[in-house]
């Protein structure tokens, strides 16, 4: 499938997923098209709310529309009641967002970046849009996950969150963090058409983990943001972090640094200051 066709298909799949998750409201469009047999809104209802023809909107969901005006895309987004993150994602899929950037691999990482995170006394990692961990400091390997013991090819946060029994068992708010992780991965997957890494990775994860498969099929998207990370560490006890991301390292939007920053009002800062205990 050509890249343009693949992107229009992704756009259509995303719109369909947002339409199906909507709960029919007592608006005057509801009930005009006969008895409801499917979850969410019908295509006819979205088309009417957005002010477009039913045929055209059907083609859009089927990936048969190659160009769409921003005005129409915005109208469809309002009809589907998209969140700010979903709205950003929709604009990108419709080619009204930032252009894709060249993918950097682990061997291209500036060694000075490793030096920077090595100086932090908080756990810190540098990852890319695939959630591949390209660099990590000692605290990250001792507190978050044993990155040193994980082969480089499998050192992927989206994999570890689901497939590493130790990390999954210790992460207190695993469900919320898993949802965030899959949402971030879905955003990158949809917006990086043509990256051959994603398809086999997602297929493998869906085959091996039911929770990942369920979350992936929801088509939820997430932008980078601060998120709570609570860990029951076997040596340090309960640790409370806020995961802070610094994006676009050296101008590359595919690279970001994640610093596990102690939550104010907890004893996590003091615990790390005396680590190892």
TrEMBL record:
Task: Using the record for this protein, list the coiled-coil segments as residue ranges, or answer none.
Answer: none
Q: Which residues form the HTH cro/C1-type domain?
A: 14-87
User: What are the GO MF terms of this UniProt record?
Assistant: DNA binding
Q: Which domain of life is it from?
A: Bacteria
Matching InterPro entries: Cro/C1-type_HTH, Lambda_DNA-bd_dom_sf, MLTR_LBD
Which PANTHER family does the entry mention?
BLL4672 PROTEIN-RELATED
What is the protein name for this chain? Answer: Helix-turn-helix domain-containing protein
Which organism does this sequence originate in? Paenibacillus mucilaginosus 3016
């Amino acid at each position: 499938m050509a890249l343009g066709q693949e992107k229009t298909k992704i756009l259509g799949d995303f719109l369909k997923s947002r339409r199906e998750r909507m709960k029919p409201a007592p608006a005057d469009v509801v009930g005009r098209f006969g008895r409801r047999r499917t979850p969410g809104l019908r295509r006819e209802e979205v088309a009417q709310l957005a002010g477009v023809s039913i045929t055209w909107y059907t083609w859009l969901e089927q990936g048969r529309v190659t160009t769409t005006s921003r005005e129409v895309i915005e109208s469809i987004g309002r009809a589907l009641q998209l969140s700010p993150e979903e709205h950003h994602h929709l604009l990108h899929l419709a080619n009204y967002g930032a252009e894709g950037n060249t993918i950097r691999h682990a061997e291209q990482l500036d060694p000075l970046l490793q030096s920077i995170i090595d100086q932090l006394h908080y756990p810190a990692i540098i990852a890319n849009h695939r959630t591949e961990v390209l660099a990590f400091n000692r605290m990250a390997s001792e507190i978050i996950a044993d990155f040193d013991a994980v082969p480089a090819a499998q050192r992927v946060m989206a994999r570890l969150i689901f497939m590493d029994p130790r990390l999954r068992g210790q992460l207190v708010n695993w469900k919320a963090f898993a949802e965030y992780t899959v949402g971030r991965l879905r955003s990158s997957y949809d917006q990086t058409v043509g990256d051959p890494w994603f398809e086999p990775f997602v297929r493998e994860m869906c085959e091996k983990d039911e929770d990942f498969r369920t979350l992936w099929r929801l088509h939820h998207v997430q932008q980078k943001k601060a998120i709570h990370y609570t860990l029951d560490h076997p040596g340090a006890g309960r640790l409370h972090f806020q995961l802070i991301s610094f994006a676009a390292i050296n101008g590359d939007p595919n690279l970001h640094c994640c610093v596990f920053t102690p939550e104010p009002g907890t004893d996590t800062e003091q615990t790390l200051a005396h680590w190892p205990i």
